[in-house]
Amino acid sequence: MKPAVILIRPQLSENIGTTCRAMLNCDLTELRIVAPRENWLSDKAVAASSGADALLHSAQVFERTEDAIADLHRVYATTGRNRYMVKPVVTPRRAAEEIRAHAKDGLKCGVLFGPERTGLENDDVSLADTVVTVPLNPDYCSLNLAQCVLIVAYEWFQSGEPAEPVAMTKGAQPPASKKDLVGFFDHLRRELDDCGFFRVDDKRPTMMRNIRNMFERADLTVQEVRTLHGIVHELVTHRQRKAASPQD
Amino acid sequence: MKPAVILIRPQLSENIGTTCRAMLNCDLTELRIVAPRENWLSDKAVAASSGADALLHSAQVFERTEDAIADLHRVYATTGRNRYMVKPVVTPRRAAEEIRAHAKDGLKCGVLFGPERTGLENDDVSLADTVVTVPLNPDYCSLNLAQCVLIVAYEWFQSGEPAEPVAMTKGAQPPASKKDLVGFFDHLRRELDDCGFFRVDDKRPTMMRNIRNMFERADLTVQEVRTLHGIVHELVTHRQRKAASPQD
Lengths: 248, 248
Prior knowledge:
The structure is a homodimer.
Chain A: E1 4-8, H1 13-25, E2 31-34, H2 43-48, H3 54-57, E3 60-62, H4 65-68, E4 74-78, E5 87-90, H5 92-104, E6 109-113, H6 122-126, E7 130-132, H7 145-158, E8 166-169, H8 178-195, H9 204-217, H10 222-244
């Protein structure tokens, strides 16, 4: 059960459109609007939604906040400043976890967002169970409406099936095996011996180890090891060719 | 050491302005711009920055991505789609942790953001150590430039001193002590006894316990307990007054 996004008295229809975009980015689809000042289906709103205008068309519109939240079990109110009300104040991350937990219990949630300039009125906040405040730079914490919706929606989306924090993209390229790597190291050492790279014999094992570490760290693919063989081969061949015809 | 935000060939100066706003919201202050199409100090850009235009004025501008990242130790490239390059791909949350860790090691980081329509070119991505991809609704994952900057900057800010996930705001109102509560329960029980609320004497302890639980759960302040005393008192007095003058 996804939470509803509830815009209270939004001033600019363009911001309703950008809100839809932010919602759909994070797979939220239920928009409710209370007493919008402008037409939420204006050309500006549709253009600003960048293809997420299905949310504008399916939006439910209400006159009063009370009506917009009537079917909900838990309501969160986003505010940028302390309202000195006796209510829990949570981060968007915590709100997302709570909303997921409520959904498991069959409870439907909604999040209130206030008008652009002023934010929610205290009467709207008092209808909510919980206040949500985005932790931001205290010296510059005014968020644009769609940015605030984005952060709340983003945290909700992240709190679902978590994405792998790190993945490697290699496309169709299989990773090199240790055998591939050792083959390359052998090739390289042979050529380095041959060209006199290891001037001091004592340092040879350490230097070779450092070189090996460097390439090990690079997490190479089969194709990349092939490329490295080619590079060494070409460098050597060019040197030999140059030696064969010094006038070149 | 804060990471630099690096916009590569941004198309609209307005988006450079909204990027500054998103950066400053999250306490990022170092903007670099590579080959902007429009004047990054245009009136549109300044207006869109909503007071964060100091970042526009202090922005460094470069012709090539290579020059913009020359002094950095670790570079992250934001992309919306898989580029099939052999690079780690991380979430913004993970990138934020890495950037914090690099900063502790004295390493300066930067994050590349591509042009609005097309995103980063593969040549730019290949200059980066790591790709950052925001986990979003796979059916609708195109983020506006400033929204993408906001999410990366937001995660960086959250990865610093973590905010309390839950706090209670009570302003200057001290929480009620158990003595305050018990005093109220005594008052309420007295009046309920008096008005005949407990019709079945057997059920009286259970009913009283349920009523107590309800108020305990509400985590009341001293002032709120005072208000509850007042409510009970007024209800009773009105009843008594009515009883005294039934013609009323």
